[in-house]
Amino acid sequence: MTKKSWFLAFAGVISILSGNASAALVTLNGNGFTATYDSAATGLFGTPTLSGDGKTILFSPLNFVASSTGQGTVFTTSNVQFDITPTANFSLNGVGLVENGD
User: What's the half-sphere exposure (Cβ side, CA atoms, 13 Å) at 29?
Assistant: First the structure.
């Protein structure tokens, strides 16, 4: 996948997940990319970290909870926005999202 087509595909995904931006920018230096996010706009996702190999952005939200005791279905939503910039000669093969819950 070329950088241009990767950027267009990723921009589409990020536009779905986008939130508000402000000036408190933080940059994570990954393996082949940098990820920049606003520390004041991570919502219920919390502060992201990088995996040990630096190839994955991880979120471990502690307050992202929806709880119901016999009252039917409940929902909790939140947004997070970040920019990923690939380094020279880096190729992104995909974007994945994994969530857990019941």
Answer: 0
Q: Which domain holds residue 8?
A: 3-86
Instruction: Please calculate the CA angle 77-49-14 and round it to the nearest 5 degrees.
Output: 45
- pTM score, two decimals? 0.64
pLDDT, tens digit, 9 for 90 and up, residues 19-68: 554 458 999 999 999 999 999 988 888 899 999 999 899 988 887 888 88
Q: Is residue 17 part of a domain?
A: yes
Name the one residue in this structure whose structure tokens are 């267009």: 8
Domain count, the chain: 1
